[in-house]
Amino acid sequence: MQVHWRHPNEVSEEIRQDAEQRLQRLANGHTDLIDTWIDVALDGHHRKGHGRVAIRCQARGTEIVAHGNREDADLALHEALEVFEREVKRMRERRKDRRIERTAGPTLRGVVDQVERGADHGFLITDEGERVYFHRNALAGGLRFDALQEGQTVALEVEAGREGLQATVVTLPPKA
Predict the structure, then answer these.
(1) Residue 92, CA distances (Å) to 26, 33, 59, 98, 136 in order
(2) What pLDDT score was predicted for residue 18?
(3) Which of 28, 35, 151, 168 is most buried, most CB within 10 Å of its CB?
């Protein structure tokens, strides 16, 4: 997971490093969090200032948004991180519940259509002809993003994303 800051100087370096460590701990062992943006703003309307923080994270199949609004930016960031951590845990619990309910069905097959190496994502075409987005974090089972070739056969699992189908897992196809 990558963390991107907008106006990072509004919070102290120590608080910023602590926030990034908390986010990395949340991402460790998981591939569902892709990119996180942290927007820090100070509102000059109040005598002592007022901090507002928005955390937006692209996660597999969804976007997580958390806000903090406190008397200073450091406290607002802490509040937003607490909300964000709760939302990530809720998302993971919902997915875990769905996996339990889901019956084991055949994995889709497809081919690599396009690889955007600089953007860490690409597109697959399923055997049914549907174009599916994938992020490098979806690769599993020994597949390496930098070694993917257009036309390569893969197996994939998909779910609805913000802008269409998104691969949640991309692996080598099972041997026939």
Answers:
(1) 11, 11, 11, 10, 19
(2) 95
(3) 168
